[in-house]
Amino acid sequence: MSGRTATRLAWSGAGLCLAMVTAFVVLWFLNRSTAVVLDYGTRRAVAILGLAGVPFAGVGAFVVARARGNAVGWICLAAGLLLTGSSLAGEYAAYALLTAPGSLPSGDAAAWLSNWTWLPAFTLIGVYLVLLFPDGRLLSRRWRPIAWVAGAGTGAAITFFAFFPGRLVSIPYATNPFGLESAAAVLEALSSGFFLVPLCMLAAGTSLILRFRRSRGEERQQLKWFASAGALAGSAYFLQTAFSLATGFIENPTAGGRVVQDVAVLTFYALPAAAGIAILKYRLYDIDVIINRTLVYGALSAALAVVYGMGVVGIGGALRSVTGGEGGNLAVAGSTLVVAALFRPLRDRIQGFIDRRFYRSKYDAATMLERFSTSLRDEVDLDSLTGELLAVVRQTMSPAHASVWLQTRPVRIGPDELAVTRSSEAVAP
Q1: Cα–Cα distance between 138 and 20 in angstroms, integer?
Q2: What distance in Å separates the CA atoms of residue 278 and residue 224, rounded to the nearest whole number?
Q3: Which residue has the higher pLDDT, 293 or 53?
Q4: What is the C-alpha separation between 371 and 391, in angstroms, rounded?
Q5: 171 — alpha (psi -120 to 50), left (phi > 0) or beta?
Q6: Which residues on neighbouring strands pair with residue 41, listed in sequence order?
Q7: Do residues 39 and 253 make contact, with C-beta atoms less than 8 angstroms apart?
Q8: What is the mean pLDDT of the chain?
Q9: pLDDT tens across 99-140, in order?
Q10: How far apart (Å, rounded) are the C-alpha atoms in residues 303 and 350?
Q11: Where are the CATH 1.20.1070 domain residues in the chain?
């Protein structure tokens, strides 16, 4: 396939994804009166996930246009089309079967499509994108079995979801129009293939870790971008799952639980953004700053939340026992003031710890420069100052060659002008 053909095909796919998203949004609003809740989340979460197809398809089209030989672009494009298509088919089925029965044709077929098309999308993102990022090639031939097992497991799961008779697994209000009663036992056995995909995801994550350990330079920065986005999405998914199990959100959805779920799904958008930034090399080295700020402010937020909670619960309980139940507001106000007072010093301490533990060279350089700035105020000898400056440069920057040029400018003394043209050079090997 020529470069022009590949580019046109990729941008056509992105345009198709945008058109499907437009239709999906229209149907989603039309279905507001119908309480449609699929087994994998609320309609809001499904909407956020469906809209995620746009950034995936957009990033995929950009990557194909810039580096058409990189399989990551095609993977993102296909995943975006599948995500949006699955969500659109689900809303189409809801409108045709529940909101306005009989108003649209082939509602059962749309429900059938929505029942299984999300499976290959998650395999593409969770397995193949991770295995092939960033250059579109496997780390080595030894990882080929993982790709084959993931494909086989996904194929088996798709077969089960597509042809198992009775109610659809993902859309329980619709019946499978292509169900095979005679093959129910075989199809149920094939459903175990669904559990192979998470194992392949773990293996793909291991491959990414090994690739990162062997990488250098620009590739290492690319992997930092993608790994950070994956860690964010994975942590959010883990916390949302733990929250749902702890609070019984699945059986009794609450407003707070829906917010947590929406935030967890929104982190999914970080994956295409990070992949696009890394491959297209835009502001690539800013990732170290982002990781640093994430570590600092994540730890700071957790620490302040613990302090605030202990203040409200502990001090509030003590005050209520003393004042007879009227100390709650005082405890909240006091805890808020303590958190505000601790913000700056606690942030500085956490920043120092993170720099010492994870950014040692940067920390040593900053410490050395601070010491040099202190000695600069007291040093008057030019030769000594030049030697100290070169020593600082050697220790902080490790250059192959360093030199200092000093030149004094003409100085007006009285009516005459004294021109001094002295220049000097000090060289550090």
Answers
A1: 32
A2: 9
A3: 53
A4: 12
A5: beta
A6: 38
A7: no
A8: 76
A9: 888 888 888 899 899 889 988 998 998 889 889 888 888 888
A10: 10
A11: 3-235+262-282
Report residue 235 as tokens.
Answer: 């942590």
**DSSP 3-state helix, strand, coil percentages of the chain (rounded to 5)?**
75, 5, 20
244 alpha-carbon distance from chain centroid: 21
What 3-state class would DSSP assign to 254? Answer: coil
Cβ 82 vs Cβ 121: under 8 Å: yes
pLDDT of residue 178: 87
Residue that the structure tokens 């605030």 belong to:
308
Evaluate whether 64 touches 73 at the Cβ level (below 8 Å). yes
Residue 57's closest CA among 75, 76, 42? 76
In angstroms, the Cα distances linking 176 to 180, 258, 306 are 9, 29, 50
Question: For residue range 377-421, what is the model confidence (pLDDT) as tens digits?
Answer: 666 566 666 666 666 666 655 566 666 666 555 555 455 444 444
Is a pLDDT exceeding 60 seen at residue 427? no
DSSP strands (E only) in 25-129 = none
- List the structure tokens of 11: 């941008």
Nearest 10 degrees: Cα torsion 355, 358, 360, 365: -50
Nearest to 73 by CA among 86, 81, 62: 62
Query: In terms of DSSP H, where are the helices of 124-269?
Result: 129-132, 144-163, 184-190, 196-214, 217-247, 255-266
CA distances from 119 to 32, 207, 290, 314 (A): 26, 22, 32, 47
Q: Are 147 and 137 in contact (CB under 8 A)?
A: no
Q: In what helix (H) or strand (E) does residue 414 lie, and over which residues does it extend?
A: none
Q: Helical H runs in 67-143?
A: 71-94, 107-116, 118-123, 129-132
Alpha-carbon separation of residue 407 from 113, 296, 404, 410, 421 (angstroms): 76, 43, 10, 10, 7
Is the CATH code 1.20.1070 the one for domain 3-235+262-282? Answer: yes
- Those residues whose C-beta lies under 8 Å from the C-beta of residue 239, and which sit 6 or more positions away, are 260, 264
Q: What is the dihedral of CA 60, 63, 69, 71, to 10 degrees?
A: -40
417 - beta bridge partners? 412
CA distances (Å), origin 385, targets 57, 341, 377, 399: 57, 40, 10, 19
How many CB atoms lie under 10 A from the CB of residue 196? Answer: 19
Contact 225, 284 (CB under 8 A): yes
Which residue reads 């019946």 in tokens?
175
Whole-number Å distance between alpha carbons of 63 and 284: 15
Token pair 């793909």 in the structure block, residue:
204
